[in-house]
Amino acid sequence: MAGDLLGARLGDVLDTLAGEGPAPGAGSAAAIVVAMAAGLVGMVARASKGHWAEAGGAIGQAEALRARVAPLAEADAAAYTQALSALRDREQFEARYRDQKLQAALEHAAEIPIRIAEAGTDVAALAALLVENGNPEVRADAAAAAALAEGGTRAAAKLVQINLGATEDDPRIRHVSALVAAAAEASERALAAAD
Which of 111, 124, 174, 110 is nearest to 153 (CA)? Predict the structure, then answer.
């Protein structure tokens, strides 16, 4: 199932996430949440065509974001599986290369959640714009999309921190921390404007 998350029925995806296997896991779930948020943003943008001159551009952005992040659900499951395999089989690596091999596997596993967090931040920002400018009848959907995108961004950023085991000095950690802050600001703005 991990290889066909996008083609599977939603119930099957949820069953797979709840299953005994380690993948798909939190990174795949974060990508799915961000993709769903982008879908909501696209719906709100379509409903806002008569309310906001920029709605057409927002539709295109939402679709591009959804297309960018959805495949990351499967990519994350594959990268995470590879990292777990490297950790389990570390004794098979020649001792002098062991740390390098493990580091490379964990860094690769962190690359996908960075991309998920980047997309989540972009979705949250676009959702906030739609709350502020779009059709008032679907404003709550845009606010919900911003909150979902922020959650996906936070989850992905935490995975980056864990996979890298790095300090705040690592530029990748600073990058995802800035993404979380930007997504949170957009979500707060969207939720406030939806009232």
Answer: 124
Apex 136 CA angle, 135 and 142, nearest 5:
75
What is the DSSP-derived secondary structure letter of residue 20? S
Query: Cα separation of 153 and 184, whole Å?
Result: 9
Nearest to 152 by CA among 49, 76, 96: 76
- The helix or strand, by DSSP H or E, that contains position 162, with its residue range, turns out to be helix 139-164
For 81, the enclosing helix (H) or strand (E) is helix 72-88
Burial of 25 (0-12, 13-18, 19+ CB in 10 A): middle
Q: What CATH code is carried by the domain that includes residue 65?
A: 1.20.120.680
Q: Distance between CA 134 and CA 38 in Å, rounded? A: 15
Report yes or no: 24 and 73 within 8 Å, Cβ to Cβ: yes
| pTM, two decimal places | 0.90
Q: Which domain holds residue 58?
A: 2-193
pLDDT value of position 1: 47
pLDDT level of residue 96 (50, 70, 90 thresholds) = low
- For the chain, what is the domain count? 1
Number of helices and strands (H, E) in the chain? 7, 0
